Amino acid sequence: MESQNPNQTTDADDAFVRFRRVTYAPPGVSAPIIDALDLEVRRGETLVLLGESGCGKTTTLRLVNRMLEPTAGEVLVEGRDTRAWDAIELRRRTGYVIQDAGLFPHFTVGRNVALVPTLEGWEEGRVSGRVEELLRLVGLDPGKFAGRFPSELSGGQRQRVGVARALAADPPLLLMDEPFGALDPLTRSTIQREFAALQRRLDKTVIFVTHDVREALFVATRVALMRAGRIVLLDTPEAFLRSEEPHARAYRETVALPKDL
Fold first, then answer.
1. Most CB within 10 Å of its CB: which of 60, 61, 132, 186?
2. What is the dihedral of CA 81, 73, 231, 181, to 10 degrees?
């Protein structure tokens, strides 16, 4: 399969998120962090934004849920410009998972997971049922973990709770910003496998930020390789491994072990 043009678009009905010539520069800064970005995220795919620190990955993510607004161009979610969405409504339709979970330390696990459904006005029985369902879904026994506080959990357990919280109100879109970056390698590998299996079951649209090429190739449907606020390669993991794009080749070299080991 040949690599796609970074500006290539998909069928309009297939795109859940669309960037149209999006530029973002913070106030008072002349050089943009995101520079004339065109990108479409297909329904049900896991699109990984891969790149080194400062290339614009997290900024791109924050433009989707209106934590930031574009300086130029437009970001569309479900066909609507993010600036036309009510910001709270948009964020409640968008699960958000960050590094080390970002749980409220004074809330129990159950209360953390229940937060958005409670804000949405779900009745108590429905909320408690959803909390139990999701904790089981991410491999945590509700009877054992729902009453614990985040400080009583391991890093891997906190990340599982973070994923459960993001899924609580059944949002169609998940944004994941280096979600497993703080975990040790063995725990990280386990969580990656669990996430991939979970995504196959739930079929959410996911935008996943990482600087780890192994992780990108494992979880992605497609990889968008970013550099200096632009996408230099957009393709499947298999095609990424064959690409002659220089930045992709440099990333591939980090995967290979030294021959003398």
1. 60
2. -50
179, 212 Cβ separation under 8 angstroms:
no
In a 13 Å sphere around the CA of 253, the CA atoms on its Cβ side amount to 7
Give the number of other Cβ atoms within 10 Å of residue 4's Cβ: 17
pLDDT in tens, 74-117: 999 999 999 999 999 999 899 999 877 789 999 999 999 999 99
What span, in angstroms and rounded, lies between the C-alpha atoms of 43 and 23?
23
- B/e letters for 112-146, b = 16+ CB within 10 Å, e = fewer, are bbbbbbeeeebeeeebbebbbebbebbebebeebb
What is the number of other CB atoms lying within 10 angstroms of the CB of residue 13? 7
Distance of alpha carbon 198 from alpha carbon 179, whole angstroms: 15
All residues at 6 or more sequence positions from 122 whose CB lies less than 8 Å from its CB, including other chains: 130
Q: What is the pTM of this model?
A: 0.89
| pLDDT exceeds 50 at position 68 | yes
State pLDDT tens for residues 183-227: 888 888 998 999 999 898 888 999 999 999 999 999 999 999 999
Identify which of 193, 110, 111 has the alpha carbon closest to the alpha carbon of residue 156.
Answer: 193
